[in-house]
Task: inverse folding
């Protein structure tokens, strides 16, 4: 279970935080580290020293240009946020995150990404809207922002506790595995197709978006569609596009 949990750091600017993240992960038995557009050199004397013997995780960390690329194969993405945002998103606590993991990771090809933001500005709204849920570490409301690696430590600890509880529970090692869920990449292709179609049929005007796509994202992500279900929805979009194109042609010949 732990090897299918990826820690994704976006736009990190201090190498020490990358090293300290590697240490926090290795302490808890996590090994999959992805860096999205880091704003510093990941491997420095500082990061190696802060990794304290876990620097192999920094050496093997994959570097991506975008969040989409870093989580393309993930079936659940959870964004860690110190602040609440304008459009409320499903919120979970670190404990609830841990409790969900055995079931989440039971399915074929299931993989979970925990996404953390920049030291100075956190995650953007667009990045948070690419996540199924947001996790908030309960804090002093007047001082809610943890150091990046400290936030990783808390989340990784909850993952480990949940993993231990699951393995110690009688029969716990075999959580029910359901049909494969849509991956992040498949969901993003669906959202792009949905937006194209809504524009083509005149339902959506990108000039006055009114958070339509964000709301549709939230609704779809909340439903946790299976791959097959998403294929049906894409089939409906294709048929809608074809119908709209035919209607357009008919108008033109009138
Ligand atoms: N100053 C930033 C926070 C940066 S902390 C802001 O105001 O948004 C760096 C990252 O650590 C955050 O993007 C978030 O992913 C994580 N983090 C810090 N505190 C957290 C908290 N209380 N709950 C969840 N994640 C947190």
Result:
């Amino acid at each position: 279970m732990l090897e299918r949990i990826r820690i994704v750091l976006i736009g990190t600017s201090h190498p020490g935080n990358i090293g300290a993240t590697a240490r926090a992960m290795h302490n808890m038995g996590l090994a999959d580290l992805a860096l999205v557009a880091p704003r510093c050199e990941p491997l420095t004397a500082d990061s190696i020293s802060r990794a304290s013997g876990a620097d192999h995780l920094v050496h093997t960390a994959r570097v991506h240009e975008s969040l989409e690329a870093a989580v393309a194969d993930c079936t659940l993405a959870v964004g860690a946020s110190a602040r609440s945002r304008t459009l409320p998103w499903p919120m979970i606590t670190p404990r609830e995150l841990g409790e969900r993991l055995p079931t989440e990771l039971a399915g074929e090809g299931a993989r979970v990404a925990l996404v953390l933001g920049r030291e100075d500005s956190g995650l953007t709204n667009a990045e948070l809207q690419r996540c199924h849920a947001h996790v908030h570490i309960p804090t002093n409301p007047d001082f809610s922002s943890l150091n990046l690696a400290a936030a990783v430590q808390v989340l990784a600890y909850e993952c480990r506790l949940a993993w231990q509880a699951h393995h110690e529970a009688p029969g716990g090692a075999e959580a029910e595995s359901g049909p494969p869920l849509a991956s992040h990449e498949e969901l993003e292709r669906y959202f792009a197709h949905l937006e194209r179609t809504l524009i083509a049929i005149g339902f959506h005007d990108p000039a006055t978006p009114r958070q339509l796509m964000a709301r549709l994202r939230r609704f779809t992500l909340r439903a946790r569609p299976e791959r097959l279900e998403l294929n049906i929805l894409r089939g409906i979009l294709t048929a809608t596009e074809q119908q709209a194109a035919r209607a357009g042609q008919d108008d033109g010949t009138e």
